Write a sequence for this structure.
């Protein structure tokens, strides 16, 4: 095994504004370096874990899921500095499914219970969730390195013995790094002596924050975008030493030629990490049924037939056939509970006077949804297709997009939290990225370029363009790039940083509900405003099998509700929105004139021009126009 090396301390762009490594590029580098395994250990989060796992598997690389957690010097719930320290670092790697679950729990609890400047765990939590984990003593910010650098060797030895006891024999390694500083070389020797005295294994790592040595300057710019400093400021952010790039196996072997076991142990650890994740199934939480009902299918059928009787003269013929067909599909695909969950929170909104949209997307094609009151569009009247919503030939979750009044949306979310439990429900994170215009402004500011210059450069980039595309296609920008050294530097660094994660926020609509505690399935993230969301984004939440709902806040619903209330209060005019006819001549005339501002899918310039040309004179005409105009129609082969 001599000569084999695996990187076990790696940061991706999800160490936000701290690492410039995008996950595909990281794995591409591993392939180029002929490495067969790679770990991901972002600071205090596992946000990129699923993307990393899937991409690694696709490229034939063994993914090792980990995290460089922040460790409180005392109790995680204490909000104070202890002995001058707010936190230490500690690297944790999952060896199996249990270790992965424990890592998710630790990372989540750091955000929900231990947040103080950073999401911190403590040794009590490490002891509780230690199974299936390998721990490394981390970089110079680890507890053991910091005590050794402070000349407190005995305290460092005590701490090392404690970690070894917490994680068990063979599961705690003294981590060695070499980034070319005198302090680092001194620490490396002290760590080596400490490991020998306690009979602890050594492991060599590089604290990867960028891909190649040429990325060093752009990485320093990234650090100072976060710190809001200029590159010329004496107190700017920078890393001591060098070698924070993705070093090859040959580089690492040479760097640790005096400690070959530290290199070999990287592969020993990699071979012990055999996490297998399964995708493709969905965990639907249980729904409490009223007395007298044995299962969700029976209750859903009863509600659907009750709703059908209220909406149609008779539940026979086409109505009965369609209803029985849909209920049969729902039953065979085991989605009755999902329908009941949606029915329940929509009913809560209706009962609470919270305006709900009539139906968005393919859900309007379901007669069951219409009979339950989830949607208010009769799919039989408009020949809407159920299979667009739920197709027995395509096993995938149906997708309800429910519109709520902006003012009432949070009340519905609170209801769901109360019903299913705070620990089982959360909103979903979304990650904003550095776009071409903003990255040019950021880089220019850090480099100290005049505001007029960066503003001019940014405005030369058309909205939605990638920076490289803009440089190639915008003549003035291309000329400046090629002829002005300062502009060239800004653009070149911008090209390296464009597309990196800039910050995390709450998804506008996404909510997940789990059958048990969320921290058994997905890591949680504390946002700056204190809100707790999933660390995984929408796609990754669905990939791990969590049930996602879209609670959309729609201002138009609020506007309509306020208008109707004002009319009733001031003029005594009562309007039932659901009774407004679809063939109102005055409304159709407004549409024909192109007065479509604020009308979903009709207000775009192209659609408005089409309406003016075609002059639709019925609701059915608008249906046809939308079906023909929407981009998806033109991609059908």
């Amino acid at each position: 095994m001599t000569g084999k090396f695996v990187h076990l301390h790696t940061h991706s762009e999800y160490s936000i504004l701290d690492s410039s490594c995008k996950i595909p590029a990281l794995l591409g580098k591993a392939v180029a370096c002929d490495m067969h395994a790679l770990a991901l250990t972002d600071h205090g989060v596992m946000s990129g874990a699923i993307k990393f796992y899937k991409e690694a598997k696709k490229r034939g690389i063994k993914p090792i899921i980990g995290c460089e957690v922040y460790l409180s010097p005392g109790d995680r719930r204490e909000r104070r500095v202890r002995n001058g320290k707010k936190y230490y670092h500690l690297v944790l790697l999952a060896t199996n499914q249990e270790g992965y679950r424990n890592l998710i729990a630790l990372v989540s609890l750091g955000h929900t219970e231990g947040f103080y400047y950073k999401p911190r765990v403590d040794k009590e939590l490490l002891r509780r969730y230690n199974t299936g984990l390998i721990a490394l003593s981390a970089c110079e910010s680890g507890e053991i390195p910091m005590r050794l650098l402070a000349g407190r060797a005995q305290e460092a030895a005590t701490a090392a013995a404690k970690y070894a006891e917490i994680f068990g024999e063979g599961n705690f390694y003294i981590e060695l790094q070499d980034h070319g500083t005198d302090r680092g070389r001194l620490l490396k020797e002290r760590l080596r002596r400490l490991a020998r005295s306690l009979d602890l294994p050594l492991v060599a790592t590089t604290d990867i924050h960028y891909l190649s040595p040429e990325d060093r300057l752009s990485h320093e710019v990234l650090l100072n975008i976060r710190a809001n400093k200029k590159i010329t400021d004496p107190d700017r952010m920078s890393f001591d030493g060098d070698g924070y790039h993705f070093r090859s196996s040959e580089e690492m072997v040479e760097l640790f030629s005096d400690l070959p076991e530290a290199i070999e142990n990287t592969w020993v650890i990699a071979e012990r990490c055999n996490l297998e994740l399964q995708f493709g199934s969905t965990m639907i939480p249980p729904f409490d049924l009223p007395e007298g009902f044995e299962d969700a299918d029976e209750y859903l059928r009863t509600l659907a037939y009750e709703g059908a009787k209220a909406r149609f003269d008779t539940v026979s013929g086409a109505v009965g056939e369609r209803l029985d067909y849909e209920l049969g599909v729902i039953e065979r695909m085991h989605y009755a509970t999902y329908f009941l969950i949606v029915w329940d929170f929509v009913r809560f909104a209706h009962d609470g006077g919270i305006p709900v949209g009539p139906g968005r997307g393919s859900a309007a094609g379901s007669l069951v949804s219409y009979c339950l009151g989830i949607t208010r569009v009769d799919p039989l009247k408009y020949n809407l297709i159920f299979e667009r919503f739920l197709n027995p030939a395509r096993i995938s979750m149906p997708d309800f997009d429910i519109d709520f009044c902006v003012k009432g949306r949070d009340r519905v979310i609170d209801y769901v939290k109360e019903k299913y439990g705070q620990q089982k429900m959360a909103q979903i994170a979304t990650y904003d990225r550095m776009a071409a215009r903003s990255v040019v402004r950021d880089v220019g500011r850090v480099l100290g370029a005049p505001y007029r210059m960066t503003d001019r450069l940014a405005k030369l980039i058309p909205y939605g363009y990638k920076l490289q595309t803009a440089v190639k296609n915008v003549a003035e920008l291309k000329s400046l790039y090629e002829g002005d050294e300062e502009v060239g530097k800004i653009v070149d660094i911008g090209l390296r940083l464009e597309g990196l994660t800039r910050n995390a926020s709450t998804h506008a609509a996404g909510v997940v509900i789990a059958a048990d505690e969320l921290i058994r399935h997905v890591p949680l993230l504390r946002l700056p405003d204190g809100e707790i969301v999933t660390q995984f984004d929408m796609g990754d939440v669905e990939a791990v099998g969590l049930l996602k709902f879209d609670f959309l806040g729609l201002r138009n619903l609020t506007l309509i509700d306020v208008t109707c209330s004002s009319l009733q209060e001031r003029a005594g005019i009562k309007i039932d929105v659901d009774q407004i006819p679809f063939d109102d001549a005055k409304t159709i005339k407004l549409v024909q004139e192109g007065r479509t501002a604020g009308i979903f899918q009709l207000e775009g310039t192209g659609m408005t021009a089409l309406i003016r040309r075609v002059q639709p004179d019925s609701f059915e005409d608008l249906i046809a126009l939308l079906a023909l105009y929407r981009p998806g129609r033109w991609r059908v082969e």
